[in-house]
Amino acid sequence: MSGNASELIDKLGVIVGPSHVLTDPELTDGYVADWTGRWRGRTAAVVRPGSTDEVAAVVAACGAAGVAIVPQGGNTGLVGASVPHNGEVVLSTRRLVGVEVDLVGRTLSAGAGVTLADAQRAAASAGLVLGIDLGARESATLGGVVATNAGGLRVVRYGSTRSQVAGVEAVLADGSVLRRWTGLVKDNVGYDLPGLLTGSEGTLAVITRVLFRLADPPADVTTVLAGVPTLAAAHDVVARLRHHDYPIEAAEYFYNEGLELVCAQLGLRRPFAAAYPVYVLCEVSGRDVESVAETLASMPDLVADATLDAAPAERLWAYRESHPEAVNAAAAERGVAPVRVDVAVPLGRHVDLEDAVRDAVTARFPGVEVVTFGHLAEGNSHTTLLGVPLEDADEATEIVLRLVAERGGSISAEHGVGLAKRQWLGLQRSDVDVATMRAIKQALDPRGVLSPSTLLP
Amino acid sequence: MSGNASELIDKLGVIVGPSHVLTDPELTDGYVADWTGRWRGRTAAVVRPGSTDEVAAVVAACGAAGVAIVPQGGNTGLVGASVPHNGEVVLSTRRLVGVEVDLVGRTLSAGAGVTLADAQRAAASAGLVLGIDLGARESATLGGVVATNAGGLRVVRYGSTRSQVAGVEAVLADGSVLRRWTGLVKDNVGYDLPGLLTGSEGTLAVITRVLFRLADPPADVTTVLAGVPTLAAAHDVVARLRHHDYPIEAAEYFYNEGLELVCAQLGLRRPFAAAYPVYVLCEVSGRDVESVAETLASMPDLVADATLDAAPAERLWAYRESHPEAVNAAAAERGVAPVRVDVAVPLGRHVDLEDAVRDAVTARFPGVEVVTFGHLAEGNSHTTLLGVPLEDADEATEIVLRLVAERGGSISAEHGVGLAKRQWLGLQRSDVDVATMRAIKQALDPRGVLSPSTLLP
């Protein structure tokens, strides 16, 4: 993008207004790198359209000029999918705002640039709940949440983002606007295009508006933080709570190593006088705190100690949610680059996977710290390796991903593929599978206008 | 298929064994027409492969010969999608059998030819439940259930079929085998191909094996049949049960006209001494029959009379489930062809839709009987018109579908498009939408091997 660059930039300025086309490196800097600092690209322009029509015109103009686009929402992703690796134009969706709740239809419609937290607050104001939550809620935008089929803390209760999408409006690679917007539970009229766009990581369309199903908020939520002897015991605690018919609203876990980092780095007080190998952070609903305490007391073989709170229990959640920040701070302190993986395995293989990862990684990289936390109900581990030499990061990642693939797991449970996992797609997806995905990409974006350097190898 | 027909038939015989290639019209007769008698095609051969590899070889051989295929399961569909309209080879999946339940992973894997009822029984034997149910359960096969994203009686509780599919094995149009089979809740590695194949009506792949998530069976189910004054009151009964925190396991409705047909045609006794305009058939769980009776007694403004049963309450379900049979029998008796539509609208428009349909249809076709039953929670009406002249069937259908589309509804809530609704796709899907679906079809089946005459216009 050099010869006709200024011509395209002028054209984009006409479409969105010159003040919404950023070319000054000082202004574009926040758009060309991800927040972890792992990915950094370059761009000639960041375009900030303010409506679906403007998005359509921007996509059409870039397509006509043969310039590729990377759509970007809150830029909170972890796999480099929103970074302009090869000089793509960045199409920021943050100006696509506006939230509306339909109380009769029990849906929330919003622009792609609305943050998850703003959408949660809009739902709550209407006495309902949006069943999607994740740590980056204040920055992550709904367009990105849908484009990445975001997982997070409430999948155990509401399923993934895809199962909550009731409608999508999106601009396709040729600049046309696709709209499926009935909000209906039953609508068997053709291929599930909203489901296909959900999780397509910006490679098939730029999502401009979304329609989510809302739910009734759970009654009588109790938050539990419990110390347990093993990861297997952590799973058993959740199983027994289920057996007692508690609706599980969240089920997280972390290890003592992580808790120590969190307390040291962020100055939190330890939750218990003693240290336990594993901690379960769990939300249940439907009964009062006393009943939950009684239920936990009935499993002394599993629960060594527990502290309970009526929700909202930010005090307890802080131990779990501060993990990413504490790990980053520890990495900076030690002067090492953290190697992060996000994987899932069938529940019956979860304990075995984490043992195998710890063994294999420390055998190959003696002295490396393995810090893991994650989501119990989906066998979803977020593992960070601290101390792997930078040049060995790919090797360390591959060690973990191979152990996952051998166990029938997912090499990316909820963060997506992006650039980070692209080279390992074949560990989990067959040649036929990859060829099928490529055929769909080719059919919907024959000129490679949308995020051409991510997802598919 | 004439010149090389016998050559292809020989080839198919080599692949599946000659006894599994049916060419005698006496044997193929049950495969070329649907059970309603509305659709009748013709075929040179019905092929009955016994494994995924055989399906792959059959598809490849037909593709090489330039002969199209229509996959067929239990042939219980209502939109003509499993009928060889243009002389296609019928690929019957009924020999793809075998069911297995994984108690740890809480999944059921099965061949595409297993009936829904057999899968339900396998899940029940393991103490779990498959959250899909519909009237044709003893004949409908799992491959068809997935290919049509079947709806039915349990969507209110478990969502549609798509949300319960945890894995799919399918043969693509070029004879290659696609397999996504992790069973994981979180697996963000590329496009959602299982979700795309679910509901694609045999046009993108032949589904050969399926993996479903199972659930715990509900405790303390009570079945309620209640007489209410209006459809609005029927919705209110469900809303109040929800307000009392009852999990709703099913929520059906029908009218007195339908009940009279059922009782007259099938010799059932009327459930109540008096007649009521509308009946709600509802299953709730989690509390005993006495509590449910008390709750119903607390809404005398809505519930005129009610009868309750601990599940299984076939006695009560018979009134609702006999509707299709009774309507067919009544049509035969009156010597008319029934015009059936399956539609859904946003809940807030449901009462208005049914009023508008009755008014519009009887204004255009005086004396026509309108018999409606359906699923309350999804605003899903199954309406049959009795007495429309055969040559006016399309006009009558279009009157209903236009009223649905004007209300933001679905012209096919759960039966799919097939040949029945193809001409009206544009009422609900935009040109961009249809073009996008066509691009996907073209990308995955460029030679039109799979069900080329259904779904897309």
Characterization of the model:
The structure is a homodimer of 457-residue chains. The first copy, chain A, is of the alpha+beta class and 457 residues long. Helix content of chain A is 35%, strand content 20%. The first copy, chain A, is built from 16 helices and 16 strands. In chain A, the strands form 3 sheets. A 7-stranded antiparallel sheet of chain A has the order 13-10-12-11-15-16-14, sandwiched between helices. In chain A, strands 5-6-9-7-8 form a 5-stranded antiparallel sheet, sandwiched between helices. In chain A, strand 5 (99-102) and strand 6 (107-111) form a beta hairpin. In chain A, helix 9 packs across helix 12 (323-334). Chain A is globular. The interface between A and B is large, with 76 and 76 residues.
Distance between the termini of chain A: 23 Å
* Beta-strand content of chain A: 15-25%
- Quaternary form: homodimer
Q: Are there runs of chain A of 5+ residues with pLDDT below 50, and where?
A: none
The number of distinct helices of chain A, counting runs of at least 4 residues, comes to 16
Q: How much helix, percentage-wise, in residues of chain A?
A: 25-40%
Instruction: Order the strands across the largest sheet of chain A as they lie in space.
Output: 13-10-12-11-15-16-14
Q: What form of chain A results from the Cα inertia axes?
A: globular
Protein chain pair with the most extensive contact, residues per chain: A-B, 76 and 76 residues
How many β strands of chain A by DSSP?
16
Largest beta-sheet details of chain A? 7 strands, antiparallel
Radius of gyration of chain A: 23 Å
Structure classification of chain A: alpha+beta
Report the average pLDDT across residues of chain A: 96
